[in-house]
Write a structure and sequence with these properties.
Length: about 100
């Protein structure tokens, strides 16, 4: 996916109604997950999502700060995020428990 024309979200836009459900892509544009929910707003918000597994079986819930993801909007207005972490690095994160 070419992100050249995508617009980065501002801190004010990093809120649940905009980013919950957003697809998270890895640095090689592989689809890793989607945002389940967030705690807080802006760069300090914790973005919670599942990694690994298949159809929800064997997956692990993890969290990153919004500042660790690059949230943007594509030409159609769809919000998505990119992480520079690999799937294996994400799987090594501690499990997030609400």
């Amino acid at each position: 996916m070419d992100h050249t024309n995508h617009v980065r979200l501002t801190n004010a836009e990093l809120r649940a109604d905009l980013i919950e459900g957003a697809t998270i892509y890895g640095r090689d544009d592989e689809e890793i997950s989607s945002v389940d929910h967030i705690h807080g707003t802006g760069d300090d918000a914790q973005v919670v999502f599942d990694v690994g597994g298949f159809l929800g079986i064997g997956s692990k819930r993890v969290a990153l700060y919004a500042s660790q993801l690059d949230f943007m909007r594509d030409e159609d207005g769809n919000v998505h995020a990119i992480t520079q972490m690999t799937t294996d690095q994400l799987k090594d994160l501690p499990e997030h428990i609400d």
